[in-house]
Amino acid sequence: MSDLSDRIACTQDQIFAAASRAGRDPSSVTLVAVTKRVDREIILEAYRAGLRDFGESYLQEALPKIDQPPLHELQDIQWHFIGHLQTNKIRDVEPRFMLIHSVDSFKAAAEISRRATDAGRLARILLEVKLDATDTKFGIEPERVLEEALGISELTGIRLEGLMGIAPYAAAADAGAGAETSRLAFRRLAGLFCRLPETCRQTLSMGMTGDFEIAIEEGSTMVRIGTGLFGNRT
């Protein structure tokens, strides 16, 4: 067994344990392998080890992986767009990604809707919620999420499936107080998720390498893990 296979198995064991502690079915949690700055050959190795969901943050980097051999030949691979979604990139993102996690405005949702409708597709999206008060962070302000969700859910050509959030950066820097900061942020996001219309409560994407076990304990159904699987990347 390779080092990557070992890390995948270890991560899956951690997911199982966290879900079990929360009294949840471990199969209700999807592992998305974040392959930012990961070569195609390594992604293929992860696929052969059993992973099917892969997340990319930068469109320019993702396109060769999605559109060229060997990955574009894999019929059951599922790509997730998890990076900041620029409106001028939607034309390339919408047709290629199974789920877009980072929709942070009605404007972006409307553009996805227009392109998907014109092409006869149904785009699956999540709304990114701003869990960090830092001005430079992206996402919809928590107090606006429900209103935005109601409007976006009425657009044609898209299916709003839930919410995504990233714990405050400071939480990752302090394993003690930071863990509690992450837990409170995830708990708030889960509370917003529970208030969405029932048809929009399919996916709660929260938790990364440093905090995914806490996220699962707080209700996450999808965790995005890169460093824990592939190590540090430049």
How does the major sheet shape up? Answer: 8 strands, parallel
Q: Mean of the pLDDT scores?
A: 95
Terminal CA distance reads 25 Å
Total count of helical runs of at least 4 residues = 10
List SSEs in N-to-C order: HEHEHEHEHEHEHHEHEH
CATH class: Alpha Beta
The secondary structure category is: alpha/beta
Strand content: 15-25%
Query: Which regions have little confidence, pLDDT < 50, spanning 5+ residues?
Result: none
Name the CATH architecture: Alpha-Beta Barrel
In total, how many beta strands? Answer: 8
Q: Estimate nothing, just give the exact number of structural domains.
A: 1
Gyration radius, rounded: 17 Å
Helical coverage, percent range: 40-55%
Strand order of the largest sheet: 7-6-5-4-3-2-1-8
Fold-level CATH name:
TIM Barrel
Structural shape: globular
Corresponding CATH superfamily:
Alanine racemase
Task: Describe what you observe in this structure.
The protein has 234 residues and is α/β, with parallel strands linked by helices. It has one domain: Alpha-Beta Barrel (TIM Barrel). The chain is built from ten helices and eight strands. An eight-stranded parallel beta sheet has the order 7-6-5-4-3-2-1-8. It is globular and about 50 Å long. The mean pLDDT is 95.
Compact description:
The chain contains ten helices and eight strands. The chain has 234 residues and is α/β, with parallel strands linked by helices.
Defining key terms:
alpha/beta, eight-stranded parallel beta sheet, 8 strands, 234 residues, single chain
Topology (SSEs and partners):
Blueprint: H1 3-21, E1 30-34, H2 40-48, E2 53-56, H3 59-67, E3 78-81, H4 90-93, E4 99-103, H5 106-119, E5 123-129, H6 145-152, E6 158-165, H7 169-173, H8 177-194, E7 203-206, H9 212-217, E8 222-225, H10 227-230
Parallel strand pairs: 1-2, 1-8, 2-3, 3-4, 4-5, 5-6, 6-7
